[in-house]
């Protein structure tokens, strides 16, 4: 018979509670005793379970780092006149609810940038944060194939960028693109300079954001005065440098610091470049989509008819050019004139492509 120390019994009991119970599934002292024997080979008497569960409950109520649910009962020993209180029906309150875990798992399951094997590993870790009764539904959800060339360095890149941003250091990396070789195979390769050598980007990193289903780095190249955006899933060979980053207040337009909500509203496709005031008119049926893209804080609605709305928004010009083409049948850009001319040429070229 294997004997265990009080410390081991305490840890094993806590592990059993996390795995086998939640707010809707409880266990008794006898069931705890049985599970300890089956899973840990630990043989204990009922009183040992009782005493150790009381310790766990007292610690949880004093420490507050975890919560154990329980019921109390009054019992009598045959030889004693006074009744005593005992605990039963134990349940562990997990940090995340099933709904919260499902939300996180769904976001991973349908991520376009995380390789399939890493998605499975992450989902398994999230499933283990709850009891055995948690059903993530991943077994019957079919997602798109994601087995082409993928960047396996994504999480390492995030860790390095977090370190660099925290310590205000520069980073260097390769920035990659897809190309098809002579055998028509899709490849994921670094950008190269004019000599055909892999180009090393040296950047001042400021923020990591998400947009359009991807992670982006907001940063600055010392050679330029503006902000740039780079997709994290296209970054490889990242290195945190010893050199200090340029303070963001020294970047043109960021003298008062980065206003992230405003920046994201102006850069809906994460193109770099200047933002301009754009006036446009669109079908009222598009209003919900318009708000989804541009929000409400940095939009002025000027007038409306029964069918259309006129609005003004400050946005990156290249981004508005793409957005207006995406919704071309329901949107008409009114100004600036240079943007109107660009969109007009784009539509003309699109028309010619189908001739």
Q: How does this model look, in words?
A:
By secondary structure, the protein is of the alpha+beta class. It has four domains: 6-93, Arc Repressor Mutant, subunit A (Orthogonal Bundle); 98-140; 154-258, no CATH class; 275-353, Alpha-Beta Plaits (2-Layer Sandwich), CATH 3.30.70. Helix content is 35%, strand content 27%. It has helices at residues 6-20, 29-40, 46-63, 98-109, 116-127, 154-167, 260-266, 287-294, 317-326, 337-353, and strands at residues 67-75, 84-93, 169-180, 186-190, 201-211, 214-220, 228-231, 235-244, 275-283, 299-304, 308-316, 331-335. Strands 3, 4, 5, 6, 7 and 8 form a six-stranded antiparallel beta sheet that branches. A four-stranded antiparallel beta sheet has the order 10-11-9-12. It has a two-stranded antiparallel ribbon with strand order 1-2. Strand 5 and strand 6 (214-220) form a beta hairpin. The longest helix has 18 residues, at 46-63. The radius of gyration is 29 Å and the shape is elongated. 19% of the residues are buried. The model has no long low-confidence stretch (mean pLDDT 88).
Helix/strand layout:
Blueprint: H1 6-20, H2 29-40, H3 46-63, E1 67-75, E2 84-93, H4 98-109, H5 116-127, H6 154-167, E3 169-180, E4 186-190, E5 201-211, E6 214-220, E7 228-231, E8 235-244, H7 260-266, E9 275-283, H8 287-294, E10 299-304, E11 308-316, H9 317-326, E12 331-335, H10 337-353
Helix pairs in contact: 1-2, 1-3, 4-5, 9-10
Spell out the helices and strands N to C: HHHEEHHHEEEEEEHEHEEHEH
**Radius of gyration, whole Å:** 29 Å
- Binned strand content: 25-35%
The stretches of 5 or more residues where confidence is low (pLDDT under 50) are: none
Portion in helices? 25-40%
Terminal Cα span: 85 Å
Q: Helix/strand/pairing class, anyone?
A: alpha+beta
The total beta strand count reads: 12
Instruction: Please tell me the total number of domains.
Output: 4
* Chain-averaged pLDDT: 88
Helical stretch tally = 10
Instruction: Write down the overall geometry.
Output: elongated
Instruction: Describe the largest sheet.
Output: 6 strands, antiparallel
């Amino acid at each position: 018979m294997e004997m265990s120390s009080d410390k081991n019994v305490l840890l094993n009991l806590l592990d059993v509670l996390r795995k086998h119970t939640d707010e809707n599934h409880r266990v008794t002292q006898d069931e705890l005793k049985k599970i300890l024997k089956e899973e840990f080979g630990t043989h204990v008497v009922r009183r040992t379970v009782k005493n150790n569960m009381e310790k766990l409950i007292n610690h949880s109520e004093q420490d507050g780092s975890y919560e154990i649910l329980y019921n109390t009962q009054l019992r009598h020993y045959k030889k004693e006149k006074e009744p005593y209180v005992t605990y039963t029906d134990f349940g562990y309150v997990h940090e995340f609810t099933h709904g919260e875990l499902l939300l996180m798992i769904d976001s991973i399951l349908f991520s376009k940038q995380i390789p399939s094997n890493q998605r499975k590993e992450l989902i398994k870790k999230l499933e283990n944060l709850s009891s055995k009764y948690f059903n993530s539904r991943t077994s019957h959800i079919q997602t798109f194939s994601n087995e082409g060339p993928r960047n396996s360095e994504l999480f390492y890149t995030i860790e390095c960028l977090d370190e660099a941003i925290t310590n205000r250091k520069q980073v260097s990396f390769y920035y990659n693109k897809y190309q098809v070789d002579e055998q028509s195979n899709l490849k994921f390769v670094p950008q190269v300079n004019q000599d055909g050598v892999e180009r090393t980007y040296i950047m001042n990193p400021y923020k990591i954001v998400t947009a359009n289903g991807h992670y982006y780095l907001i940063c600055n190249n010392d050679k330029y005065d503006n902000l740039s955006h780079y997709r994290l899933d296209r970054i490889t060979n990242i290195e945190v440098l010893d050199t200090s980053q340029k303070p963001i207040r020294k970047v043109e337009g960021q003298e008062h610091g980065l206003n992230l909500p405003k920046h994201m509203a102006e850069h809906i496709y994460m193109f770099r470049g200047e933002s301009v005031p754009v006036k446009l008119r669109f079908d009222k049926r598009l209003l919900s989509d318009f708000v989804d893209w541009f929000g409400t804080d940095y939009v002025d609605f000027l007038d409306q008819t029964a069918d259309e709305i006129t609005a003004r928004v400050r946005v990156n010009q290249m981004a508005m050019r793409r957005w207006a083409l995406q919704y071309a049948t329901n949107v008409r850009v009114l100004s600036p004139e240079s943007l109107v001319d660009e969109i007009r040429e784009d539509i003309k070229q699109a028309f010619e492509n189908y001739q």
